[in-house]
Structure formats: structure tokens, C-alpha cells
Amino acid sequence: MYVILVYDIEEKRVGKMLKLCRRYLNWIQNSVFEGEITGVKLKELEYEAKQIMNIEKDSLILFKSREERWLNKEIIGKEKNDLDNII
Fold this sequence. Notes:
Elements: E1 2-8, H1 11-24, E2 26-29, E3 32-36, H2 39-52, E4 59-65
Antiparallel strand pairs: 1-3, 1-4, 2-3
Helix pairs in contact: 1-2
């Protein structure tokens, strides 16, 4: 499945969440990640994120689609992380 993940985490936990998300998805902008991920890996990511988060203060939003082709993505301005450069 294709996922866009967005988080709003208290500053003292941002580094841990950033490292976690980079293990599973591609970083595209501050606190925003995207990429293909299996259902099992997504469950792992969600579980580990909950260990980092303070559920009372932090949030994590997941947008899910069966495939990237079903998502119309438009970038205006400079793209923070150009995925086309990956070899």
C-alpha cells in the first residue's frame, strides 16, 4: 500500500520520530513521509510510533492508498527531497 504519514510531535521527541519514520518511508518535507509499505511493516511503524508519542499531546496522521498511481500529487515550489535521484 502507499502511505503518506504526517506527524506533529513535541520537540523533545521529534528526533526519535524522525529516525523511526526514515526506517520505513521516504522523507519528503518536515514531519512528512511517503512511500510503499506492507501492512505488516505499517503495523510495526504504528506500534513503535505509539511508544515514542505522548498520546495526549502528539499526533500522527496516515493517508493510505492501494497504490501511488491513485494519488494525484502536485508540487509547487522546491521539492525538499527529490526521490528521482535515488539510484
